[in-house]
Design brief:
By secondary structure, the chain is α/β, with parallel strands linked by helices. The chain contains 12 helices and 6 strands. Helix 11 crosses helix 12.
Amino acid sequence: MSGLVPRVPAHAVDAIGQFLRAHALGNGVDGVVVGLSGGIDSALVARLARDALGAQHVLGVLLPDAPFPDPLLKETEAFARELGIESRTIPIDPVEGAFRALLPELSDRVSLGNAKARIRMTVLYAVARERHRVVAGTGNKSELLLGYFTKYGDGGVDLLPIGDLYKTDVRAIAEELGLPAAIRERPPTAGLWEGQTDEDELGIPYADLDQILYGLEQLRSEEEIATLTGFPLERVRAVAARVIQFRHKRRSPPIPKVRLRTIGIDWRE
């Protein structure tokens, strides 16, 4: 067995609860808005927020488009009811159609998928402002490190409650908390185009990815990670290269140094 399988820290759920209470209640903030997709990440964020803040402070928003399966929509609405949280379903087809009409020359599915992710986040922020709430993102540590999210789409949020949990951590906590099996076992997808799945697009299962990422977190060399996991060195190097390639997504926009103290460089917040 690999010596790099990440284990869920015993304090993880408590730490996330404290984090949510500190950032999502008080000072004019009355809870969180969570985009519910039917996937395990958004389901876990909604559950953790419900447990930490109380159901009255959590609003789940479903943002289906035309390809979104109706059975999945009904299942996700039912999950929100089971949690006891308020939910809203807001189809984004009209906005998506207007965007396509504005730029009819766009045909690349990644560009269109990114636009869809940004439309969803625009809606979430509009709803959140009206309700005096913050947007709780659903990105996990594996996705953040790999840059597997849309800049200013699902990456443009106020809080990332599960941002320090690997995907395998998310699965373990979801099982521990008894989230529905249908949600836990569904292949993860960003839902940006029909038939998309995370692991097909990334080309490697999360169970393997997380071992490599965990090794990188521990500052182990690529060669050591390959030895400990048994994965080919080329695979380890490819994952490490991707973490570096997409680091721009995890950083604020760079600013040139002109004045005495510069935001993002030496301005102390």
